[in-house]
Structures are given as C-alpha cells and as structure tokens.
Amino acid sequence: MTQNQLSYTGEFEVAAEQQRFITKVYGWMTFALAITGLIAMWISSTPQIVNVIAGNRFLFFGLLIGELVLVGSLASMVQRISAQLATLLFVLYAVLNGLTFSVIFLLFTTESIASTFLITAGTFGVMSFYGYVTKSDLTRMGNLLFMALIGLIIASVVNFFFQNEMLYWITTYAGVFIFVGLVAYDTQKIKKMNIIGNEGTEEDKKEAIMGALTLYLDFINLFLFLLRIFGRRR
C-alpha cells in the first residue's frame, strides 16, 4: 500500500468516526426533543395539571430555575460524573422543559405550533448541514454571535419590565438570526470536539451528550423565537 493510499485510508477512517459521532449527537438531541414534545402535549391535554403549572407563578418559575440549575450542573460536572449520570441529567432536563412548554399550547394554536416546528426543523437541518460540511472556520462568527447573545439576554430582561413592543420585535428577529448562526457554529464545534480514537469510551459518550445538549438548546431557542413570528394566539 502506497503512502497516498495509507493517507486516504486514515482520512476515510477519521471521517467515518466523526460521522458516527455526530449521528449519536443528533440521535440524543432528537430523543430529548421527542421527550419534551410528548410531555408538553400530554400535560396540555390534562387541564388539571397544566392549570396548576400556568396558574402558579412560583411553580412555573421554580421549574425554569430548576432547568437552569440542571444545565449549569451538567456543564460544570460533566468531566467528573459518569456517562450514565450525564445522560440521566440530560433526559431530566428534557422532561422539565416539557412541563414548562405545556403552557405554549394554552397560548398558541396547535396548527401554528406544528408548522413552526417544521420551519424550525428545516432551518436547523440546513444550517447544521452547512456547519458540518463547510471548510470555513466559523470560530470568529461564533464569538460575535456569543456577544450578540449576551446583548439579546440583557435586552430581553430589560423588556420584561418595560414591555416595549418595538424592542420585543427587535429581540425576536435578532434571536432568530443569532440562533440560526449558532446552529452552524455549534455543529462545527461539536465535530471538532470529537476526539478521534476514543469511540465507545466514557468520554466519547459524554461528548455526545454535551453536543446533543448544545444543539437541543439551539433548536429550542430558535423554535421559541420563530413561534413569536409564526405562532397564532388562541
């Protein structure tokens, strides 16, 4: 076997392992989205439960705080915990998201939620594919988007108190733009994050879970901002 053939074989094996890794990432992300969606639909069809969640501000914000704590804990402890525990925390986060997302069905029609989900899935798929195959380094774009995301969070918090309609729509379209870009950037980052040669190890499984969590958050946030635009209120 020539040197060129050996080089080609090595590149092929690396690409194949990266593809298997990203497939696992997408699989876990899809699984988490399915859990969130199914729980949200089930809760929304049970008036007694959804009314308790929507009608009790302490419970609702408690769930939101619990989600933030869970994500922060998973991100900070992932190197010190087992892959099984990381998976459990990820699934638990998807469950909690399903509980809070059930309120959406009270605010928007089921048809507009479904159509917005399809728009989100299509946009996510295109941008994630671009991030996976592009040869361009998206690091600089990712840094700019991260700074824009911080500004978006600050503006959203401010508008929570002032309820300015113009600022609401500015943050809405800015949020769509930011998360569309982050899908591509994060996909490329996750692809590079994969350590070649550790397939099947504990580290590999935890890398897949953290990658899935990142893309899951991108998908959820993109969906919520698009729902502001395409959602039809009841």
Compile the SSE list and pairings.
Blueprint: H1 3-44, H2 47-55, H3 57-77, H4 83-101, H5 104-107, H6 110-133, H7 139-162, H8 165-193, H9 202-230
Q: Can you walk me through this structure?
A:
The chain is mainly α and 234 residues long. The protein has one domain. The chain has helices spanning 3-44, 47-55, 57-77, 83-101, 104-107, 110-133, 139-162, 165-193, 202-230. The N and C termini lie far apart (67 Å).
Quick structural summary:
With 234 residues, the protein is mainly α. The protein is built from nine helices and no strands.
What is Rg?
A: 19 Å
Looking at the chains present, what oligomeric state does this protein adopt? Answer: single chain
| Secondary-structure content class | mainly alpha
- The low-confidence runs, each spanning 5 or more residues with pLDDT under 50, are none
Ends: how far apart? Answer: 67 Å
Task: State the share of residues found in helices, binned by percent.
Answer: over 70%
Largest sheet: none
Number of continuous helical runs = 9
| Number of β-strand runs | 0
Overall geometry comes to globular
Tally of distinct domains: 1
Strand coverage percent = under 5%
Give the SSE string. HHHHHHHHH
Average pLDDT, rounded to a whole number, is: 88
